[in-house]
Amino acid sequence: MATDTTKTEQQFKAVMQECRSLFEKKLHDYSASWRILRPQSLTDQLFIKAKRIRSLEIKKESRVGEGIRPEFIALINYGIVGLIQLERGFADSVDMDNDEAMALYDRHANEALELMLRKNHDYDEAWRDMRVSSYTDFILTKIQRVKEIEDLGGEVLVSEGIDANYMDIINYATFGAIKLKEAEKE
């Protein structure tokens, strides 16, 4: 039988593979059109996804037919896009091909996995005992922090940078996707 840590790693990788598959399909359809997103626009995109999750959690009703889990998947993918944009800056037009975009995606997804494994070791699987709504609130908090850092022009005194907040958003959203998948099976 798999230990909780091994199970977490397997579940995390499964969600990331689901996200990767969707990202690759969207690259086919739209190419790397997200390259034109300036940092603040990307932050707002993350914000509306997280805000919709919170709204659905509170209202318990979706009028457009999509539930919460697809929004967590979107947060993961936009979080990785955010990391790529931080590394490369935004562009005025699509300036990378799909292979390059996928290579960057894979590198940042792997970095998110490695961070999760380190933190999960230290926090001893605490995420399993948390409520999904807490992930949503933590994600919204991280997005607010990104907004503040952007407003400060990136000049922080003691805080982690935008990249660390994106990584936390990816990881909390992945935990949310895992927990919701588990709930579907019950």
Distance between the termini: 19 Å
Largest sheet report: none
Instruction: Please count the beta strands (DSSP E, at least 2 residues each).
Output: 0
Q: Roughly what percent helix?
A: over 70%
Q: How do the SSEs run, as a string of H and E?
A: HHHHHH
Structural class determined from secondary elements = mainly alpha
Average pLDDT reading: 94
Tell the overall outline. Answer: globular
How many DSSP helices?
Answer: 6
Question: Layout of SSEs?
Answer:
Blueprint: H1 4-30, H2 39-59, H3 68-88, H4 98-123, H5 132-151, H6 162-185
General description of the model:
This protein is mainly alpha-helical and 186 residues long. It contains six helices and no strands. The two termini are 19 Å apart. The mean pLDDT is 94.
